[in-house]
């Protein structure tokens, strides 16, 4: 499997849900993430509460600079979603390190697969071992 990219110096990753800056995450996603534009704060808070959350923080200030969440049963399946890196720190490999750390965090569970959806970052995720579905004709979705 692909190596986990190193996190840039001066940053740290945490899975502590109490560290999540919920207001900041909601602002990022609801105003700047094409997949979550207009998402209500209450809905975002429920998503955080029901997920395994990863945050990247500036080591000195403690300010959150990136976020990702995973929906998983911790046995067979996981869905990686809401990956967001603040524009002020993009280009430092923070997103790649975040997703790599999330992947490694899940590895001991013996999951069969981790899925994600992306409109424009296929190359980024491919470097971390993600690939197109082998049999997309076997997958279906229920849309509300």
- The ordered string of helix (H) and strand (E) elements is EHHEEEHEH
What number is the mean pLDDT?
Answer: 95
Structural class: alpha+beta
How many beta strands in the DSSP annotation?
5
Q: How would you describe this structure to a colleague?
A:
- This protein is an alpha+beta fold and 144 residues long.
- The protein contains four helices and five strands; from the N terminus they run E-H-H-E-E-E-H-E-H.
- Strands 1-2-3-4-5 form a five-stranded mixed sheet.
- Helix 3 links the parallel strand 4 (77-85) and strand 5.
- The relative contact order is 0.18.
- The model has no long low-confidence stretch (mean pLDDT 95).
Secondary structure layout plus pairing:
Layout: E1 11-14, H1 22-32, H2 41-49, E2 52-58, E3 64-72, E4 77-85, H3 94-106, E5 113-115, H4 122-126
Parallel strand pairs: 4-5
Antiparallel strand pairs: 1-2, 2-3, 3-4
Helix pairs in contact: 1-2
Give a quick summary of the entry.
This protein is 26% helix and 22% strand. It has helices spanning 22-32, 41-49, 94-106, 122-126, and strands at 11-14, 52-58, 64-72, 77-85, 113-115.
Give the key terms:
144 residues, alpha+beta
């Amino acid at each position: 499997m692909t190596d986990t990219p190193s996190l840039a110096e001066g940053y740290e990753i945490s899975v502590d849900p109490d560290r999540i800056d919920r207001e900041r995450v909601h602002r990022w996603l609801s105003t700047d993430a094409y997949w979550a534009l207009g998402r209500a704060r209450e809905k975002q808070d429920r998503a955080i509460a029901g997920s395994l959350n990863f945050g990247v923080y500036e080591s000195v200030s403690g300010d959150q600079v990136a976020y990702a969440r995973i929906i998983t049963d911790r046995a067979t399946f996981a869905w990686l979603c809401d990956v967001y890196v603040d524009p002020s720190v993009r280009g430092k490999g923070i997103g790649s390190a975040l997703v790599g750390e999330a992947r490694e965090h899940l590895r001991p569970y013996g999951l069969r697969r981790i899925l994600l959806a992306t409109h424009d970052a296929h190359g980024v995720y491919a470097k971390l071992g993600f690939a197109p579905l082998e049999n997309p004709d076997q997958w279906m979705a229920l849309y509300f």
